[in-house]
Amino acid sequence: MVMDRHFGSLNIPAASLSSFNVLAVVVFAPIYERIIVPVACKITKTEGGISHLQRAGIGLLFVILAMLSAAIVETKRLQIARDEGLMHQNVAVPMIIFWQIPQYVLAGIGDMLNQIGMLEFFYDQAPDSMRSLCLALGLLTVSLGSYITSFIFTVVNWVTGWMPENLNEGHLDRLFLLFSGLSLFNLVVFAYFASRYRYKKK
């Protein structure tokens, strides 16, 4: 809402950018399935190219890259706001909204890899009698993650005030960097346990 949303005569709704998240999945899924997986299979000499947990871990890495991309874009936006003397005005800065597309694409690819890896892992590794339950629990973690993220966001904003009513006076870039750090910690913990997991034999 505080970026230039004009594209010719069109005024782009800010919420419409989430469609690039979906488009990234639609475009990348066939590329992944038709190109990346066969190449990975030839390199690793294994079925699927990479394991379910490796796929999920790569997805988590893409989420970190998305957060870092968001932090870089917001840092640049705040710099423009300072240079243009708009810090204390709740107005859009002259920076095109399309600079946000890379982070939506990275997040979409990351979510796809993570979700596919997680669902394949539960389907393949869970006991037959618990397969549906494990799939449901896997999806439950996604919703719990959303609640935890909202809680962290609310607490951090309450303590730091990084996201005031006027975002030109805020520090949303620091919030993105914080979530990058938390995501990196999450990836490290995930990698620790994933590296110790032994797949059941077919």
From TrEMBL:
<keyword id="KW-1133">Transmembrane helix</keyword>
<dbReference type="InterPro" id="IPR000109">
    <property type="entry name" value="POT_fam"/>
</dbReference>
<feature type="transmembrane region" description="Helical">
    <location>
        <begin position="133"/>
        <end position="155"/>
    </location>
</feature>
<protein>
    <submittedName>
        <fullName>Uncharacterized protein</fullName>
    </submittedName>
</protein>
<dbReference type="InterPro" id="IPR036259">
    <property type="entry name" value="MFS_trans_sf"/>
</dbReference>
<comment type="similarity">
    <text>Belongs to the major facilitator superfamily. Proton-dependent oligopeptide transporter (POT/PTR) (TC 2.A.17) family.</text>
</comment>
<dbReference type="Pfam" id="PF00854">
    <property type="entry name" value="PTR2"/>
</dbReference>
<feature type="transmembrane region" description="Helical">
    <location>
        <begin position="175"/>
        <end position="194"/>
    </location>
</feature>
<keyword id="KW-0472">Membrane</keyword>
<feature type="transmembrane region" description="Helical">
    <location>
        <begin position="12"/>
        <end position="32"/>
    </location>
</feature>
<dbReference type="GO" id="GO:0016020">
    <property type="term" value="C:membrane"/>
</dbReference>
<feature type="transmembrane region" description="Helical">
    <location>
        <begin position="53"/>
        <end position="72"/>
    </location>
</feature>
<dbReference type="GO" id="GO:0022857">
    <property type="term" value="F:transmembrane transporter activity"/>
</dbReference>
<keyword id="KW-0812">Transmembrane</keyword>
